[in-house]
Design brief:
The complex is a heterodimer of chains A (253) and B (128). By secondary structure, chain A is mainly alpha-helical. Helices cover 69% and strands 10% of the residues of chain A. The termini of chain A are far apart. Classes of the chains: A mainly alpha (253), B mainly alpha (128).
């Protein structure tokens, strides 16, 4: 019995999720954010690789040759072991230093790309969340509508039995009630589908329901200067140009 | 068994690389030009998106205010119409029309609020 209750509880219980929690979850779980974090780590390793150009390169090799008696004349040893240790050190190579600067800029670019991805995911989460709230409101509206028509049907039935209204009115109310039921089912299906998309977007394992309602929030004033300074996509485009110029500088040496 | 060692130094300078360097330089220059174009395009696109979003917000604010008033009026009409129907003064068709109109306004109100909140999120996205 307890097990049955637990199963029932798990299948019907859904976690309430606020907009802030949804955004936080998306920031942690969304695939594009995880990928951009890995790209950032890769760019950091790129700096280490570029730094290798100023460090010495050491290599060691060994070879063994055996000569047959016909080929080993005089004091020529039949067995020949050869060890080779090579140390290579660039005294000065400007391209290496430019390469390090380029790797650093690429890391900065990855960081900006990550920020841009974060902003985009945050925006997408909000749109999905608001869409769910809207669908929830539509369901609530249709549920109230259904109650209204159920009550109306009861009254019309009473009035019909008392001979106060013709049969056509009763049929009309019944038709209206069925139509509202169908609309409600459609709205619920739309909501559940949108909820599944939302869960997939957040990569949530458990069931979740958006909490809150659509309200009017007055807008804050923003100007073009703020936009041009802060927009993360624009920052990425500017950095891409810087990186391309740096890469050209490296090629020139 | 003969033991010994050799010691040497190597100096190299590439005289001809089959024009590989020139080709790489040209590629890097083209990449710079590409990024300049990309920056211009992004700036233009963001400017347009910004103005469009501001226009959307302004228009949706007016729509919300209008819908709120319509909703208030529709709610009162519905209340009166239902009462009139109960007392047998109004017809059922009249009530049906009033209910349908009220629901439509309410649904439009929610839809406009959804669009308004989405536009605000878009504005926030553009300025961050």
């Amino acid at each position: 019995m307890r097990l049955l209750l637990l199963i029932l509880f798990n299948s019907f219980w859904a976690m309430a999720l606020t907009l802030e929690q949804a955004v936080e979850t998306a920031m942690k779980n969304h695939t594009s954010i995880r990928l951009s974090t890995l790209e950032l780590q890769k760019a950091e390793e790129g700096i280490r690789r570029a730094r290798a150009g100023i460090l010495p390169q050491v290599s060691l090799s060994y070879s063994y040759t055996r000569l047959s008696e016909e080929l080993a004349f005089g004091s020529t040893p039949r067995n020949r072991h050869s060890y080779n240790l090579e140390l290579e050190q660039a005294v000065f190579n400007r391209a290496v230093f430019e390469g390090i600067k380029l790797a650093r800029e690429q890391r900065e670019l990855q960081e900006l790309l990550r920020q841009d991805t974060l902003r985009e995911v945050e925006f997408q989460t909000k749109v999905l969340f608001y869409a769910l709230l809207y669908r929830k409101e539509v369901i609530k509206l249709l549920e109230e509508n259904l109650k209204y028509w159920e009550e109306n049907l009861k009254q019309t039935e009473g009035r019909f039995q008392a001979g106060m209204v013709p049969k056509v009115e009763l049929i009309r109310v019944r038709a209206q009630l069925e139509s509202v039921k169908a609309q409600l089912e459609g709205a619920r299906a739309d909501y559940h589908k949108a909820l599944e998309d939302f869960r997939a977007f957040l990569r949530l394992e458990e069931k979740a329901e958006p909490q809150g309602s659509l309200t009017y929030i007055p807008p804050t004033s923003v100007d073009m200067k703020t936009l041009l300074e802060n927009n993360s996509t624009l920052k990425v485009a500017k950095k891409n140009l810087e990186v391309a110029r740096r890469a050209l500088g490296v090629q020139e040496f | 068994m003969v033991e010994g060692y050799t010691f040497g130094a190597r100096l190299s300078y590439r005289i001809f690389d089959g024009f590989a360097r020139e080709a790489s330089l040209s590629q890097a220059r083209i990449e710079v030009l590409k990024q300049v174009e990309n920056l211009r395009e992004t700036e233009n696109r963001i400017r347009v998106e910004f103005f469009k979003t501001l226009e959307d917000i302004r228009s949706l604010q007016v729509q919300i205010r209008a819908l709120e008033l319509s909703l208030e009026s529709a709610r009162e009409t519905l209340r009166l119409s239902t009462e009139r129907y109960r007392f047998g003064v109004a017809t059922q068709l009249e009530v049906l029309e009033v209910v349908s109109s009220y629901n439509q306004i309410l649904q439009n109100h929610y839809l406009t609020l959804f669009q308004y909140n989405t536009a605000l999120a878009k504005l926030e996205r553009l300025t961050r």
